[in-house]
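Schema walk-through. Below, the input block comes first and the output block second. Nothing else is stored per chain. Lengths vary across the set, and this one has 311 residues.
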Amino acid sequence: MRRLKRLPVSILPVSILTLSVMLLSMLLSQRSLAATENIPEQWERVFVTDGTIKLEAFVKGRGTTVIVHPSLGRPVQDFVDLGNQVVAAGYRVVGINPRGIGQSTGPMEQITLHELADDVWRVADYFDIKQTFLLGQNFGNRVSRVASTHSPDRVLGLILMAAGGNIAPSAEDWSTFQQVFDPNVPPEQHLQAVAKSYFASGNDATAWREGWYGDTARLQLQAIKNTSDFDDSYLGGTAPGLVIQGLNDRIAPPQNAFELVQKRPNTRLVALPNMGHAMLPEQPDVLADTVIDFLLSQSQTNHGLGMSSKP
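--- output ---
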């Protein structure tokens, strides 16, 4: 892969319905914009460009790198709190906003998970990262598995959160899940759909009231369908693995994680009660402890590997 470069409205009575639609559209657009318009404090934002592809990435820390890929239709800013704790443990975190999220752009029609996995290595190459940990949640876990399969010698460890697979959610749960990405769903009904689909009962879903990219999510789901050879990437390469599973996950039922760990060598499973599909805002400290424990165990095994030549 070649070296990449950093690169007056008149209101008439007849228009009231139109105005209402415009206002609703503005409110719905805030679901995505509010979560991605600011640069997280003490994080650096960079842009990695390659032809028509521009990837927005956020970086913080020094040491062995952990590259993070977010959930379906969600921004990588979801990982700021976890990333801060990982950085405090002595690592460097690079979070990628995938195409169509935040300020990342690039072709999305007729692509597969393979093209999106190549974006992970585009960012790694920009930072001159020879070896890295990969961490992916939900849709990001699929992209990370494919990326790890593409370049297994570059992956120090693979961390998968909400690793869906062969066992689908119930028809009722899937119907509710689709409402999360429907721009026509009113805000309060949308929040109810988020709570039911992503959060264990009793957990506060307002943390994810915003930050939703419905159009991108639909294209990401299509990329999954377009990847007819995903079975070849099911195990996600050969690096040591950690699968973190919420036992109250309705969208990626726990049996998926159990089956993956049984089939994948050198992989540990951490299953957490009172945790759904969102994970990050539900039990942030437990999640951080789990991730850091795995990183430390593998970093001791691979001491001195994965360092970047760029600050």
